[in-house]
Specification:
InterPro entries: SAM-dependent_MTases_sf (IPR029063). The chain is of the alpha/beta class. It has a domain at 15-156 and 180-206 and 258-267: Vaccinia Virus protein VP39 (Rossmann fold, 3-Layer(aba) Sandwich). Helices cover 40% and strands 20% of the residues. The protein has helices spanning 17-31, 36-45, 63-70, 82-93, 109-114, 131-140, 160-170, 185-192, 212-220, 226-231, 234-245, and strands at residues 5-7, 53-57, 74-79, 102-106, 121-124, 146-152, 196-204, 207-209, 255-257, 260-267. The strands form 2 sheets. An 8-stranded mixed β-sheet has the order 1-4-3-2-5-6-10-7. The chain has a two-stranded antiparallel sheet with strand order 8-9. Strand 5 (121-124), helix 6 (131-140) and strand 6 (146-152) form a beta-alpha-beta unit. The longest helix has 15 residues, at 17-31.
Length: 268
């Protein structure tokens, strides 16, 4: 196995280091695990196993990559968040997967492609990349490589839909939050990028938290509420999020939010 590699360049617009590290830790410890059913469903659908080479776009703190190594795949992740990448390095180079064939790169998918063997599977589990990036990706890969794009399912099937309205309401109109994708957004993104559609799926990903404070911290770590924080302040956003989560508070104090995610398989 080749050693894991991390290349980290500080992002010019990054938050102060301590704040960014705390937010990344909340993502890794609270929020990221909510998407495990999505990760595993895709790996099973794509028959990911020994010999597979997975490129994770927006790999975050590396949980999806760690699960891929558990299937026997070599992995390469790219992300623009240096704090999350540091946590991914701890996972992939430390006790959880020491010695696995893994690379992590700060930057774009094209930089990632230049530093590793061609992938046999590309995933974008968190935020779908832009059409220009996907177009460049298609031109750089061989024919037939699967690219899996994922996002929220129908708003009526997601408890997060009304909660995200907090971000929409508090944000400055000139700085809108990254909101809900349209019903056919992933398909449209793939076809605009010259990719060939080859299937889709839906996966239940309930969000479960130990309590309201844990829920708010987890949701703030996603970045979906950053524009609202910039327009007001984190204390106000924290308060209004807690109120929006009240319908999902159970008698034992936990928070439970059923959500449906969907993914699209496209090929280069």
């Amino acid at each position: 196995m080749s050693p894991a590699l991390v290349v980290h360049h500080p992002h010019p617009a990054a938050r102060p280091a301590a704040e960014a590290a705390a937010r990344a830790r909340d993502w890794a410890e609270i929020q990221e695990r909510m998407l495990v059913p999505l990760y595993e469903a895709v790996y099973e659908r794509m028959e990911t196993g020994p010999g597979a080479r997975v490129l994770g776009l927006g790999c975050g703190s590396g949980l999806a990559l760690l699960l891929a190594t558990g299937h026997g795949a070599a992995v390469h992740g790219v992300d623009a968040d240096g704090a999350r990448l540091e946590l991914a390095r701890e996972r992939l180079m430390g006790g959880e997967a020491a010695g696995c064939d893994a690379r992590l790169t700060w930057g774009s998918c094209l930089e990632a492609l230049a530093e590793a063997p061609p992938p046999t599977l590309v995933t974008a589990f968190d935020t779908p990349p832009g059409s220009e990036e996907l177009l460049c990706l298609r031109k750089s890969l061989g024919k037939g490589v699967p690219v899996v794009l994922a996002s929220w399912g129908p708003a009526e099937r997601c408890s997060m839909a009304p909660v995200l309205r907090v971000a929409e309401r508090l944000a400055d109109p000139s700085d809108p939050p990254s909101g809900w994708c349209g019903r056919d957004h992933l398909e449209e993104l793939a076809t605009r990028s010259g990719l060939r559609l080859d299937g889709s799926g839906r996966v239940a990903c309930p969000f479960g938290y130990a309590g309201p404070e844990s829920a708010v911290r987890g949701l703030l770590s996603t970045g979906l509420f950053d524009s609202a924080v910039r327009a007001t302040d984190e204390e106000q956003v924290f308060k209004e999020l807690a109120e929006a989560l009240h319908p999902h508070l159970r008698a034992d104090g936990t928070v439970w939010m059923p959500n449906l995610f969907r993914y699209v398989i496209a090929r280069t």
